[in-house]
Amino acid sequence: MLERCLEECRKRRFETVRLEVRSDNSSAIHAYKKLEFDFISIGTESSMMEKQLNKPSLSFQGEALLK
Questions:
Q1: Which conformational region is residue 23 in: left (phi greater than 0), alpha (psi within -120 to 50 degrees), or beta?
Q2: Measured by CB atoms within 10 angstroms of the end CB, which terminus of the chain is less buried, N or C?
Q3: Where in the chain are the domains?
Q4: CB 40, CB 18: distance < 8 Å
Q5: CA distance 35 to 47
Q6: If DSSP codes are grouped into helix, strand and coil, which group holds residue 18?
Q7: Strand, helix or coil at 67?
């Protein structure tokens, strides 16, 4: 169900999805990490996680912009 939600967010060109999870809910945390969510804050009772959507491609045409 969350994967469908993420796909809809991508279609709507959302850049980021954030969620709050109870810090003691290890099965939910594991599921979110499997979907490539990262912790952005960790609390004693709950933590915030986020996933970047529509990441830009790392392939460049022409001169490289990274130095």
A1: alpha
A2: C
A3: 2-52
A4: yes
A5: 16
A6: strand
A7: coil
